[in-house]
Specification:
The protein is α+β, with helices and mostly antiparallel strands and 81 residues long. The chain is built from 3 helices and 4 strands, in the order βαβαββα.
Length: 81
């Protein structure tokens, strides 16, 4: 996938972060041409440094959520942030 945009999200974006806040990013990606033609791609891709289920993130953790371009455009049309 080709990443088109990656931006700060969460508490760091809104200025509500504390010393213990993790980092959050959201972005938009363009799937590979073959995957688009075959319809074989996830519309949302999550990446996280904290893999423990139920464990709270620490200041060292990073969460990233990427949306495919078509999903992003649908969300934009719906007025979602």
């Amino acid at each position: 996938m080709k990443i088109l945009v990656k931006a700060i999200a969460g508490s760091h974006l809104f200025g509500t972060n504390t010393e213990s806040s993790d980092r959050d990013f959201k972005g938009v990606f363009l799937p590979e041409a073959d995957d688009i033609l075959l319809g074989k791609f996830d519309q949302t891709v999550h990446q996280s440094t904290n893999k423990e289920v139920g464990q709270k993130n620490t200041r060292d953790d990073v969460d990233v959520e990427f949306y495919s371009l078509d999903k992003f455009l649908k969300m934009l049309y719906q007025g979602q942030t």
